[in-house]
Specification:
This protein is mainly α and about 325 residues long. It folds into two domains: about 210 residues, HUPs (Rossmann fold, 3-Layer(aba) Sandwich), CATH 3.40.50; about 90 residues, Tyrosyl-Transfer RNA Synthetase (Orthogonal Bundle), CATH 1.10.240.10. It has 13 helices and five strands. Helix 3 packs across helix 12, helix 4 packs parallel to helix 13 and helix 10 packs across helix 11. It starts with a strand and ends with a helix. The structure holds adenosine-5'-tetraphosphate (AQP). The site of adenosine-5'-tetraphosphate (AQP) has 19 residues, from helix 1.
Length: about 325
C-alpha cells in the first residue's frame, strides 16, 4: 500500500545517533520505497520554542538538511523543506489551538521534562509545541509518521485533535487520522553516560551522545568511556532487566547492524564489555563516518542546500496552502 509520510527534525544542532536510529534511518527506508510519497521537514518553528542564537539557527537549518541528504534521503524523490517557509503551519497551529482542550496538553510528559521545575519560565510555544506538530502532519494528509518512541504521546494527541476537528465541524475524514511508525525494537536510544536517560541534543555532556558529525577517533573515545556495569554480558534478553547500560549498548549494536537482539546476545553472551565496546566502535564508525564526511562536504555547498530547501518549500506550499484554505472555509472564514 502506498503511504504518505510526514516527519520532522528540529534544527537545534548536535544531531545524534538517537535521531539517526530512531528516526532518520527509517526516513531513508521509506524514501527508498518508490510507492511512498515522503515529506521531511526541518522544523525550525519548533526549534525556537527554546532560545536559539540566530546565526547558529541558520547554520543548523542547513546542517539538518545536509544530514537528511547525507543519510540517504533523495531530494528528487522526497520533499525536503524548512517549516518557517510555509505559512500554513503556523496558521493551522492557531486554528487547532483554538479547539484543543488545555487538559489534553497538560498531560504531555515532554513539556514537563523540558520545562523542568521552572515551568513558569518556559515559553508558551514549548507548551503548545504538540499542536504545531499536529498542524504539520495534518496539513499534508499524512497516513504515516515515522518518529522515535519519545514522540508517541504527541502523535496520539495529533490523532485526537484530528478526530475532534472532524466531529466539531461535521466534516468526517477531512483531517486524516495518521498512524505512528515507531520501530518495534531499539526505538529509544539512551545516553552513553546514563542508560536511564534518553540520548539527547541538549545534554551538556558531549560524551553522552554520538554526534552524526563525530570523527572515527571521537566515536572510539566515546564508546570507550561509555558507562557500564561490573558483570559479564548476559546471553538472554530477560537477564538485561536492571542493566540499562548493557541493554543500550547491545541495542545500538543490533540496530546499526539490522540484526535481532538475540543474535547480538549469542555473539556477546558471557563476554566482557570491552569486547562489545571494541566491536561497537568498529561498526559505528563504519556506519557514521561516511555520513559525517558527506555532511561536512555538503555544508560547504550552501547554494545547493538552499536550493533544495527552496524547491521543497514551493512543493510543500502547494499542498499545505490548499489544505489550509479548505480548513478556513470549513470553520467559517
Ligand atoms: N534518543 C533517541 N532515541 C530514539 N529516537 C530519538 N529521537 C530523538 N532522540 C531520540 C527522534 O528523533 C526525531 C527528531 O527529534 P527532534 O530533533 O525533533 O527532537 P527531540 O526528540 O527533542 O530531540 P532531542 O535530541 O531529544 O533534543 P532535546 O535535547 O532538545 O530534547 C524524533 O522523531 C525523535 O523521536
Amino acid at each position: 500500500m502506498s503511504k504518505k509520510i510526514f516527519s520532522g527534525v528540529q534544527p537545534t544542532g548536535n544531531l545524534h545517533l538517537g535521531n539517526y536510529l530512531g528516526a532518520i534511518k527509517n526516513f531513508v527506508d521509506l524514501n527508498n520505497d518508490n510507492q511512498n510519497e515522503c515529506i521531511f521537514c526541518v522544523v525550525d518553528l519548533h526549534a525556537i520554542t527554546v532560545k536559539q542564537d540566530k546565526d547558529q539557527l541558520k547554520n543548523n537549518i542547513r546542517e539538518t538538511t545536509a544530514t537528511f541528504i547525507a543519510s540517504g534521503i533523495d531530494s528528487s524523490k522526497s520533499i525536503i523543506f524548512n517549516q518557517s517557509k510555509v505559512h500554513a503551519h503556523a496558521e493551522g497551529s492557531w486554528i487547532l489551538s483554538c479547539m484543543a482542550p488545555m487538559g489534553w496538553l497538560n498531560r504531555m510528559t515532554q513539556f514537563k521534562e523540558k520545562a523542568g521545575k521552572d515551568k513558569e519560565k518556559a515559553s508558551v510555544g514549548l507548551y503548545i509545541y504538540p499542536i504545531l506538530m499536529a498542524s504539520d502532519i495534518l496539513l499534508y494528509d499524512a497516513t504515516h509518521v515515522p518518529v522515535g518512541e519519545d514522540q508517541k504521546q504527541h502523535l496520539e494527541l495529533t490523532r485526537d485533535i484530528a478526530q475532534k476537528f472532524n466531529k466539531d465541524f461535521d466534516c468526517e475524514d477531512f483531517l486524516r487520522v495518521p498512524e505512528p511508525l515507531i520501530k518495534k525494537d531499539f526505538s529509544r536510544i539512551m545516553s552513553l553516560k546514563d542508560g536511564l536517560k534518553k540520548m539527547s541534543k541538549s545534554d551538556p555532556s558531549d560524551l553522552s551522545r554520538i554526534n552524526l558529525t563525530d570523527t572515527k577517533d571521537q566515536i572510539i573515545n566515546k564508546i570507550k568511556k561509555a558507562k557500564t556495569d561490573s558483570f559479564p554480558l548476559p546471553n538472554e534478553e530477560h537477564k538485561l532487566k536492571d542493566r540499562p547500560e548493557a541493554e543500550n549498548l547491545l541495542g545500538i549494536y543490533s540496530s546499526v547492524l539490522n540484526q535481532t537482539l538475540d543474535k547480538t546476545l549469542d555473539e556477546f553472551g558471557g563476554k566482557n564489555f570491552s569486547d562489545l565496546k571494541s566491536q561497537l566502535a568498529e561498526v559505528l564508525s563504519s556506519k557514521i563516518s561516511p555520513i559525517s564526511d558527506e555532511i561536512k562536504k555538503l555544508i560547504n555547498d550552501q547554494n545547493y542546500l538552499d536550493k533544495v530547501l527552496a524547491e521543497g518549500a514551493n512543493k510543500a506550499n502547494e499542498i499545505a496552502g490548499k489544505k489550509i484554505k479548505e480548513m478556513k472555509k470549513i470553520i467559517g472564514f
